[in-house]
Amino acid sequence: MNLNRRTILKAIATSGFISQIQKVNAQDADAKPMQIGVSTRQIDVNGKAAKVYSLATDGSTKGLYTRYGLPFKAVVSNQLSEETLIHWHGLTAPTGMDGVPGLSGPVLQPGESREFAFTNRRTGTHWMHSHVGLQEQGLLAAPLIVAEDGAALVDEQEHVVMLHDFTFRSPAEILAELQSGKGGHAAHMNMTGNMANMDHSKMVMPSGSMGLMSDIAFDAMLANDRTLADPEVVQSEKQGRLRLRIINGSAATNLWIDLGPLQGELIAVDGNAIYPIKDSRFPLAIAQRADIRVQLPAGPGAWPVFFHGEGLTQRSGIILRSGDGSIQKQSADAENAAAMVDLTLEAALRPIAVASDNPVARSEIIMLTGGGSDYVWGLNGKPSMHDILFNVREGERYEILMHNMTSMSHPMHLHGHYFNVVAINGRRFHGALRDTVLVPPDAQVAIQFDADNPGNWAFHCHHIYHMNSGMMGAIAYQNAA
User: Fold this and answer.
1) pLDDT (tens digit, 9 = 90+) per residue, 133-159?
2) Phi, psi of 8 (to 5 degrees)
3) Contacts with 439 (C-beta within 8 Å, 6 or more apart), sequence order
4) Cα–Cα distance, 274 to 159 (Å, whole number)
5) Separation CA 102–CA 104 (nearest Å)
6) Between β-strands 397-404 and 444-450, what pairing exists: parallel, antiparallel or unpaired?
7) Which phi and psi (to 5°) does residue 347 adopt?
8) By the 8 A CB rule, do 285 and 252 touch?
9) Strand (E) or helix (H) holding 159
10) CA geometry: angle at 372 spanning 366 and 373, to 5°?
11) Spatial contact of 415 and 105, defined as CB atoms under 8 Å apart
12) What angle separates helix 171-179 from helix 183-190, to the nearest 10 degrees?
């Protein structure tokens, strides 16, 4: 989709999408590159120390903040004893800067540094994460916020929330167990109820379905590295208005955002403004982002905001507090497991930005396949990592119909582009502008995108264990290097 600055400003102004944000590391055009170090750090998870990855910008692990219209310049230094590479999820960087080994460039070896510099064309709530192996499960991720500059600011407070599913186990061990026919996925396939070597007692299947919402047991759900045993408290003015920028950085868990008695306005998805939708509960698939505006009631008070994994009783959360409101202890386990994340809200989302008027040059069908007892996943019946699914020509518009033939949901992510969701199970509409869309079991979801960023681009399921077991391919421009 080609959007000029005037269109972007109009869309953002209409939704009230602009707000003040602390412009940590915000660059000037002639500024030196931001320094991003990849290393390790230690966090506390329910009283137990955990060593996880660290992605620190100019020494801060709170994320990267910059402004629209400025060049993106960053030097990434690998301070690990293993290779890595960082993907700028949500920024439509040139193909050589996209951070995907085998498609956009070599990995960063231990001790190696590399500069990434390109013209950024996106605003909004995004994130950056490793695209090497299973490092994302180890929390090698951080927020990436691009604030619009030059428009009227809305009087509201902002807060970024990065969500993770957490395990003390080695992700490689978990994947090996799944691929050997053990664990929760094996129990799902065999329908025996025997969960093998893992405790999956909190996992459920949707009523009347053979689908599975989760096949991995996690030790905790985290919101900004914290559990509900010691949640982050966001202090606000009385009757304050907040904009929550929420990022689902989970490796394998789709979530529900639960505002409890509060009502919120969903004003943007995947960094793109939509016509606001009011509710107290919103779905958020793996890798998706949601900007939600919340108006706190008059007087002092404290309100928990929960992030509840589908099929699980486990949840994380933060506390919104105004004045000297009393904070009550919240349980990390809900009374009931959360329902499957579905497409009800997706079908209701409408973008503010005007869609491309380019006619569709060609339609492609991609079948999401696999998921047997061997835990092999694929596209069109074939597991791969970088196989070309189809070719496109620059300047043309394409439609992809994804049909999920498996018994698990797949959050499908297209690199280097944004797409409109245009149909769900045959019902056509002009849906949200996204880079990641969920395709539930048996569902058919159609998207359209403009081929406006030449190169070879990853197209994959963002469930990290599915991706690393074959559900990844590529879309290539003709004559692209």
Assistant:
1) 999 999 999 999 998 764 445 678 999
2) -65, -45
3) 368, 402, 404, 409, 410, 411, 412, 445
4) 19
5) 6
6) antiparallel
7) -70, -20
8) no
9) strand 157-166
10) 160
11) no
12) 20
Predicted local distance difference test score (pLDDT) of residue 28:
56
Average confidence (pLDDT) over 188-202: 38
Answer yes or no: is pLDDT of 9 > 50.
no
Residue given tokens 């119909």 in the structure block:
401
CA distance 227 to 187: 28
Inter-residue contact 84 to 108 (CB < 8 Å): yes
Residue 203 DSSP one-character state? -
Burial class (CB in 10 A: 0-12, 13-18, 19+), 30: exposed
476 beta partners: 391, 456
> Do β-strands 113-119 and 34-45 pair in parallel, antiparallel, or remain unpaired?
unpaired
Confidence band (pLDDT; 50, 70, 90) for 204? very low
C-alpha angle 352/366/96, rounded to 5°?
70
**Which residues make beta-bridge pairs with 333?**
314
Q: Give the DSSP letter string of 60-82.
A: BTT-EEEETTSEEEEEEEE-SSS
The pLDDT score that the predictor gives to residue 68 is 83
> What type of residue is 75?
V
β-pair type (388-392, 377-379): unpaired
pLDDT digits (tens, 9 = 90+) for 374-413: 999 999 999 998 899 999 999 999 999 999 999 999 999 9
Query: Which pLDDT tens digit goes with each residue over 292-338?
Result: 999 999 889 999 999 999 999 999 999 999 999 999 999 999 999 99
Terminal alpha carbon distance of the chain = 22
Classified as helix, coil or strand, 18 is coil
Distance in angstroms (rounded) separating the CA atoms of residues 270 and 353: 13
Q: What is the pLDDT of residue 299?
A: 86
Q: Residue 426 burial by CB count (10 A; 0-12/13-18/19+): exposed, middle or buried?
A: exposed
Chain centroid to CA 241: 24
Distance (Å, whole) CA 344 – CA 386: 32
Place of tokens 């199970």: 425
Overall residue count recorded for the chain in this entry: 481
Residue 65 amino acid letter: Y
Chain-centre distance of CA 201, in angstroms? 26
The pairing of strands 377-379 and 419-424 is unpaired
**pTM assigned to the model:** 0.90
Distance CA 317, CA 116 (A): 34
Sheet containing 141-147: give its strands across.
64-67, 141-147, 124-130, 86-89
Determine the pLDDT at residue 19. Answer: 35
> Three-state SS for 176?
helix
Closest CA to 122 of 462, 433, 459: 433
What integer is the mean pLDDT of 19-40?
Answer: 67
DSSP H helices, 230-375, are: none
- For residue 458, give the nearest of 395, 389, 408, 411 by alpha carbon: 389
Beta-carbon count within 10 A of 24 CB: 15
